Amino acid sequence: MEDALKLLLERGVISRKQMRDLSRERFASLQDLRQRLLAAGWIDAPDWKELEGALPDGTTAPTDGAPPSRSPLLREVETTALRVARTETTVLLLGESGVGKSRLAELIHRASARRNGPFVTVACGSFPETLLESELFGVEKGAYTGATKAREGRFARARGGTVFLDEIGELTPPLQVKLLRVLQERRVEPLGSSEELEVDIRLIAATNRNLEADVRAGKFREDLFFRLNVVPLTLPALRERKEDVLPLAQHFLERQSEKHNRVFVLDDPRALAALEGYSWPGNIRELENCIERLVVLSDAGRIRYEDFPPRILRETGRLPAPPRARPGLASEPAADARERLPTLREAELQLITTALERHRGNVNRAALALGVHRNTLARKIEEFGLDRRAFRRGQRDAAALKSS
Q: How far apart are CA 188 and CA 336, in angstroms?
């Protein structure tokens, strides 16, 4: 029940004081908790129904242990996903590569009535067309050269559960026709067979392509698009939910600690600022790979800013942009490149200014983001002569030095 209370706290249903009070009571079931919340007026029936599927009962949350999102954008998408999970409706997940579409698909499955059935994932872009057809629909013995035995397809294997088709925009037109038939009739015909099999599945699809543009270009069937696009959910990119970057980075760091049986420490203010300041075009997947790199290159378990990939150092201000090559001229000498680097004092001022701008002059939050004590940051603000009131007003120009 403690996990359920934590989730209610995270969703803003109850306050910390209310959580402490409820923790002292004993609830035999979620329904007992529901009655207590309704009686106290802390939640109403429609809101409880919306949250019920997400309350921990060992079935709703993905098993990767990732921290809950702090982003209102993603939380809204997840809330809608949990509402849709109670139905059999086909769901289309949209968003850039690496934003967590497969994780959301698993959340929908675990919050659905099919949670006890299989969750079968197919990455459509990773199979050749002929192999993908047999993977999806199955194959009879002798259907083609090398088919030495009958094999069940993924749709049949997922009976009673969910099929997640990732990269669905990569399906060829013939496979799009077959998939449309599955959605319309819930039947598949294995390769080499003259008989059809009924399939009892729920379909979730995902793509990073613009399917509407593909429909206009004749690359994707319009009728299949409308079948898939019943409930489209667009996941925000990581750059649109910066508040999730550090918790995710810490989560990946803890996983690396378990993998290597070592303790890794992420407390370098420059590293923390770089993680928050970078745009992460590869989204969560790029962040995870970056943390793995930092772990491999770490010195005595301490994550160092200097070990970030050059593209991150360049974007966050550590490295200059590579010089444009000019015909007939050699690239700039290394000494010239070093001259363009900021001094330590300039870099320190830039980091402090960025943190104060991002947190609207809130010294406590800025200090937390920089990984330093509040008093340390306060001394630095005084040392640089920064005007905190200007940051609270959001006036960048007015946040200049009080005195030169």
A: 66
pLDDT in tens, 53-92: 566 543 344 445 678 889 999 999 999 999 999 899 999 9
**Contact (Cβ atoms closer than 8 angstroms) between residue 137 and residue 114:** no
Torsion 33-10-105-119 (CA) sign = negative
Contacts 24+ apart (CB under 8 A), 281-287: 281/96, 281/239, 282/97, 282/98, 283/96, 283/97, 283/98, 283/99, 283/100, 283/237, 283/238, 284/98, 284/99, 284/100, 284/238, 284/248, 285/97, 285/98, 286/98, 287/238, 287/245, 287/248, 287/249, 287/252
What confidence tens digit (pLDDT) does each residue in 271-314 have?
Answer: 999 999 999 999 999 999 999 999 999 888 889 999 999 999 98
Across 218-240, average pLDDT: 95
Average pLDDT over residues 344-355: 81
**Residue 363 burial (CB count, 10 A):** 17
Q: What is the C-alpha radius of gyration for the chain, rounded to an integer number of angstroms?
A: 26
Question: Would you say residue 330 has pLDDT above 70?
Answer: no
Do 295 and 264 form a contact (C-beta atoms < 8 A)?
Answer: yes
Q: What is the pairing mode between strands 187-188 and 197-198?
A: antiparallel
Structure tokens at 231: 């409930």
CA angle (78 as vertex; 74, 80 as ends), nearest 5: 120
Rounded Cα distance, 130 and 95, in Å = 27
- pLDDT number for residue 10: 73
Burial (CB < 10 A; 0-12, 13-18, 19+), residue 203, is buried
Query: What is the distance between the alpha carbons of residues 365 and 218, in angstroms, rounded to a whole number?
Result: 51
Using alpha carbons, select from 297, 292, 119, 320 the residue that is nearest to residue 204: 119
CA-to-CA dists, residue 92 to 33, 50, 74, angstroms: 34, 20, 16
Q: What is the pTM of this model?
A: 0.64
Structure tokens at 87: 């139905």
Among candidate residues 116, 110, 283, the one with its CA nearest the CA of residue 204: 110
Question: Residue 163 belongs to what H/E stretch?
Answer: strand 161-166
Please name the residues in contact with 393: beta carbons below 8 A apart, sequence gap of 6 or more: none
- Residue range 146-171: average pLDDT? 86
pLDDT at 96: 94
Burial of 109 (0-12, 13-18, 19+ CB in 10 A): buried
pLDDT of res. 21: 81
Instruction: Give SS3 for 67.
Output: coil
